[in-house]
Design a protein that fits this description.
InterPro entries: EF-hand-dom_pair, EF_Hand_1_Ca_BS, EF_hand_dom, WD-EF-hand_domain, WD40/YVTN_repeat-like_dom_sf, WD40_repeat_CS, WD40_repeat_dom_sf, WD40_rpt. Keywords: Calcium, Repeat, WD repeat. This is WD repeat-containing protein on Y chromosome-like isoform X2. There is one protein chain. The chain is α+β, with helices and mostly antiparallel strands. Among the domains are: 105 residues, Recoverin, domain 1; 165 residues, YVTN repeat-like/Quinoprotein amine dehydrogenase (Methylamine Dehydrogenase, Chain H), CATH 2.130.10.10; 117 residues, YVTN repeat-like/Quinoprotein amine dehydrogenase (Methylamine Dehydrogenase, Chain H, 7 Propeller), CATH 2.130.10. The longest helix has 22 residues.
């Protein structure tokens, strides 16, 4: 529910209420709309002139649009909502809406809702694990078998090598079943007489059956840690090419069935009467090794244990796959024959045979009785869905593969189909919608550079058990494992805003919404009053990370820049891409600015250039770059930050410590500021952020009006004279941290900063550096509040002046964007399950906090209040503390490192600005009010204690959940994460081992003409953001608590 939807708590949203017949009626209103011209009267002194403004047919103003909607729906209950909706639709800001704008909004909204729904159903959220099967000796894997108790994966190679794998894809052991066979030597290369065609696991008797091209079956006992061959059935008339095995799970020793598909098109049936007891007759023999059984002796010597029969000539070609259906005694078989591609045959030949025909035959199939769907894959690149009882034509044909389909699998619980093609591409299909949900190109070494790899007969295996839910795929002598759904380590109870780290969070004061962007190129719009998601447009820049976001002056358009230098302009209300700006280099965009009065968009970044784009034509989709900056391209290093001071000042800062101040009107350089290192160190000092104090610049000429952040130190500059430095102070929580986010109130009295340790601070700068002093000011401004808001670097903060109060918006690389009060009270995380209400503090905080029993809180507060009164009488001038023997409702606050601090009280000289004591209130104490807690010559009310209780509960909840954020991908990945973290804090250099140009690009085209195109899908990569330094510090804090 968006901010506009809160007016409709018990009704359908307008977008949900509109049906097809409503759209037809509304289209007629737009087509028949012919408004009267507008007559403008102009007073010229002696006479009044009239000017006629022509109205374009089909364009409605707000009143006309409201009346048309009310007439179509037959109600005016949406009047207030329509007024706000009209602002969304008016993308051109001309005060009129036409049919195209209305349709574009609806189509993009419905399309994004569909994409969000399907994205939740994407099964593969992690990178696949790929292992090299060394025992295969460069031969492909024919079959993957899965055993239980314990669970093991067994790969059988073409030449007969068994490899046993653990569920974690670690090679346990291997066997060569052809080691004792005689071989022929041709030069230096060994040639085996037979190849493995298929293998099947007989679960009830712990045996594996292997078929070979020598027309034989080999039975291996795997009940012990060492596999050994027990029986060798030879002399079959044809080559057994595929198997299926069935047994009664209620009675393991009852008759079981082994189905063999032969290369002659015949089905061979082996009925084992007591498979657990014995498979064949075992006479006494002196020689060691497997018991050899001639197939012609089954009727005479082994009839007690097994009987063999066959269904001849079902197919005219080799049978490629078989499946036994015990519920109706039928067998499904497939072949490459067009006339008998797929057959459902009665095992007793009593019922009719169902024949399914496909032009190029059927390579593979799968069937599920509960959903009554038969899925097949063929060499014509298609996946076909069949009704088992309707053979004339398939229900649906799923197209998308570029090569032949060699394996398919049905997932009953997810209602999804997995298909594998010869080019090692896996596609996930929705069984209901018949659409592709996800495409993954397996990065097998043999499939890169466009080569078509070699596959075995059965290259895919789907596991659907609760403990082992994954997809196994083989290619040549490699095996890959793709986990289905979220693993336990990813299912964190801590809410996150995006699935990857955030780059920025902005507040739109016109629509009262929050916009967040993340490294997965996803942009989300949130309602600030409830924290609910309004709209998401994914793949904004393909697979490129978003590095910069900015609103224009009208608050209607959103500008975004990416790591590859691309810049786009959006209507952030519906995700419509208005403009694409020409990139000047394959480098990060770090600053964007829309100058509406000049109709120009300005961009800076690691290209070291100040680039201009013409913004005068709203219909121009592709805008070329203009590098004719009249002041010259002076930056010699990457531009890291930019800020604008209306009307005519622009500041650009680079990694070499230089800040240029430009005059926008003439594009000429006004002054140059150089940051120098103390001492003899000549290394450049990167400038992290620059910010104008805009209110000061207009009102106070002699005050510091520019702040530059360098390695956690703030430099305060007066640029009205000759770039005089008024102050220099440390503003980060720890030495070595960087302040990468800061903002001020509209009157420049409050400064909010955020650093790389996750701390957010609020300072009073009303009287700070207002005039030039004799010495450089080194003391920081007065700290009002300070708290640790995130476990990672806070990349942006926003000061929000809302009707409900003053709030702070923060975004971090820990995948969260959070909302706080100006005092540091935690309101919520955008993306959490339960919404909040800004006007109701009872809804703030985590879900568990809102459900605290009120009686328990009251009891804790009463106990605290009574004891606090005693403490205040004995220690009037000491910090508030609980003795060890007393039970505090928030013990973490006493012993742990101070997470949240504020300014010192007057009259306490021992509290200087270097150590910030606990926050207190200075109000007069009401006479006779025994419910107030006396402390530090002030008082703390029960409401304040309640707020502290809630915040400390939040702190405990966060501490418990952050234990699950530990990286689990190994030391190598942890080192890489440390490198990436350092790059972002200091230099934001590009990743060293990732070539973004070689990544698959799946973009989403959001134009009115291509709005109905299917969204592309891309692989999801799990990124971890926590560095070991923060984890170590966090563990120390927890141990202290």
């Amino acid at each position: 529910m968006t901010g506009f939807d809160k007016d409709l708590p018990n009704k359908l949203r307008l977008e949900e209420k509109i049906k097809l017949h409503h759209l037809e009626q509304l289209m007629q209103h737009f087509q028949c709309h012919k408004p009267d011209d507008i007559i403008l009267h102009k007073d010229c002194g002696y006479f009044t002139s009239s000017q006629v403004e022509k109205r374009k047919p089909g364009c409605m103003n707000q009143q006309e649009f409201n009346e048309a909607i009310a007439k179509v729906l037959g109600t005016e209950e949406y009047r207030d909502y329509i007024e706000k909706l009209f602002t969304k639709l008016d993308t051109s800001c001309d005060g009129y809406v036409d049919w195209n704008e209305f349709c574009t909004y609806l189509l993009l909204l419905y399309r994004e809702n569909d994409y969000i729904r399907t994205k939740k159903e994407i099964p593969f959220l992690q990178e696949p694990k790929i292992r090299h099967v060394v025992p295969n000796r460069q031969e492909p894997t024919t079959k993957i078998l899965v055993t239980d108790s314990p669970c093991r994966y067994i790969t059988v190679s073409k030449e007969g090598a068994f490899s046993v794998w653990t569920p974690n894809m670690q090679l346990d052991r291997s066997y060569d079943i052809t080691a004792n066979d005689k071989v022929e030597s041709t030069g230096t290369k060994r040639r085996f007489k037979k190849w493995v065609t298929d293998a099947i696991y007989m679960n009830n008797c712990n045996k594996i059956v292997v078929g070979t091209s020598s027309r034989e079956l080999r039975f291996y006992d795997i009940s012990t840690s060492h596999f050994f061959e027990e029986f060798h059935l030879f002399g079959m008339s044809d080559v057994p090419y595929c198997f299926d095995y069935w047994y009664d799970k209620a009675n393991l020793n009852s008759e079981s069935l082994l189905v063999c598909g032969l290369d002659s098109g015949t089905l061979g049936l082996f009925y084992f009467k007591k498979p657990v007891t014995q498979l064949f007759e075992t006479p006494f023999k002196n020689e060691p090794g497997a018991l050899k059984v001639f197939i012609q002796d089954l009727k005479s010597q082994h009839s007690k244990w097994v009987r063999y029969t066959c269904l001849p000539a079902l197919h005219s070609e080799m049978i490629r796959q078989v499946k036994y259906l015990p519920e109706n005694g039928a067998i499904i078989s497939s072949s490459s024959c067009p006339n008998s591609s797929l057959l459902i045959s009665d095992i007793n030949r009593f019922k009719q045979t169902y024949v399914f025909k496909s032009p190029k035959g059927v390579e593979c199939f799968d069937y599920n009785k509960s959903i009554n769907i038969l899925v097949s894959g063929s060499a014509n690149h298609n996946v076909q869905l069949w009704n088992p009882y309707m053979t004339s034509k398939p229900i649906a044909i799923l197209r998308g593969h570029n090569t032949g389909v060699i394996a398919v699998a049905l997932h009953k619980a997810l209602l999804q189909i997995f298909s594998l093609s010869r080019d090692a591409v896996i596609k996930v299909w929705d069984l209901k919608e018949h659409t592709c949900l996800q495409t993954i190109a397996m990065k097998f070494p043999s499939s890169i550079h466009g080569r078509v790899p070699e596959h075995g007969q059965f290259p895919m295996c789907l596991l659907t058990s609760p403990n082992h839910n994954c997809l196994l795929v083989t290619c040549n002598d490699y095996i890959g494992q793709l986990s289905l759904g979220n693993t336990t380590k990813n299912q964190l109870t801590t809410p996150v805003t995006h699935d990857t780290q955030l780059c920025c969070a902005l507040y739109n004061q016109f629509f009262k919404q929050v916009v967040t962007g993340c490294d997965s190129s996803t942009i989300a719009v949130w309602d600030i009053e409830a924290g609910s998601k309004a709209i998401v447009f994914s793949n904004a820049h393909g697979n490129e990370e978003i590095t910069c976001m900015k609103f224009d002056a009208t608050w209607r358009r959103l500008l975004t820049g990416a790591r590859n230098g691309t810049i786009k302009v959006w209507n952030f209300q519906n995700g419509h891409n208005l403009h694409k700006l020409e990139p000047v280099a394959d480098a990060d965009v770090t600053g964007l600015l829309a100058l509406n009065d000049r109709k120009v968009i300005l961009a800076v970044g690691w290209s070291r250039l100040i680039t201009l784009y013409d913004d005068s034509d709203p219909d121009n989709m592709y805008v070329t770059a203009d590098l004719s900056w009249r002041g010259g391209q002076l930056h010699k290093d990457d531009i890291s930050a930019m800020d604008h001071c209306p009307p005519n000042l622009l500041a650009t800062a680079s990694f070499d410590g230089i800040v240029y101040i430009w005059k926008l009107e003439t594009e000429k350089l006004l002054m140059k500021i150089i940051h120098q290192n103390d001492g003899n160190n000549l290394q450049p000092i990167p400038v992290d952020v620059v910010m104008f104090l805009k209110y000061r610049a207009l009102k106070f000429r002699d005050a510091a009006t520019l702040i530059s952040s360098v390695s956690g130190n703030f430099h305060w500059w007066n640029i009205a004279t000759e770039s005089i430095e008024f102050g220099r102070c440390l503003m980060a929580e720890n030495i070595g941290d960087s302040v990468v986010g800061m903002c001020t109130s509209t009157d420049d009295q409050i400064l909010v900063t955020a650093d790389s340790s996750g701390f957010i601070k609020v300072f009073d700068i009303q009287d700070y550096c207002m005039t030039k002093s004799q010495h450089l000011v080194t003391e920081p401004p007065r700290t009002l509040h300070s708290w640790k808001g995130h476990e990672g670097t806070v990349v942006s903060v926003e000061y929000i002046n809302h009707d409900a109060g003053i709030f702070i918006l923060s975004a971090s690389v820990d995948k969260t964007a959070k909302l706080w009060t100006i005092c540091g009270d935690y309101i919520g995380t955008f993306g959490q399950k339960h919404p909040w209400d800004l006007k109701s503090p009872k809804t703030w905080g985590n879900k568990d906090i809102s459900q605290i029993n009120e009686d328990e809180i009251k009891r804790d507060l009463d106990t605290t209040s009574d004891h606090s009164l005693e403490v205040s009488q004995t220690s009037q001038n000491k910090d508030f503390d609980f003795p060890p023997s007393h039970s505090s409702p928030f013990p973490d606050l006493q012993q742990s490192e101070s997470i949240r601090t504020s300014t010192a009280l007057p009259g306490h000289p021992e509290n200087d600005q270097s150590s910030v004591p606990a926050k207190t209130r200075q109000d007069s104490v009401n006479n006779g009010n025994t419910e107030d807690v006396i402390m530090n010559n002030g008082y703390m009310s029960k409401e304040t204690l309640h707020a502290m209780y809630v915040k400390e509960k939040n702190l405990t909840f966060t501490c418990e959940q952050n234990k699950a954020l530990r990286p689990f991908l190994g030391a190598k990945v942890l080192c890489d994460l440390q490198r990436r973290r350092q790059d972002r804090c200091d230099r934001r250099q590009q990743y060293g081992d990732i070539n973004t140009k070689q990544m698959a690009r799946f973009g989403k085209i959001c134009t009115p003409f291509q709005v109905l195109s299917m969204p592309g899908t891309a692989e999801e990569t799990v990124l971890m953001e926590e560095s070991s330094r923060i984890l170590t510090k966090f563990e120390n804090d927890v141990m202290t608590v």
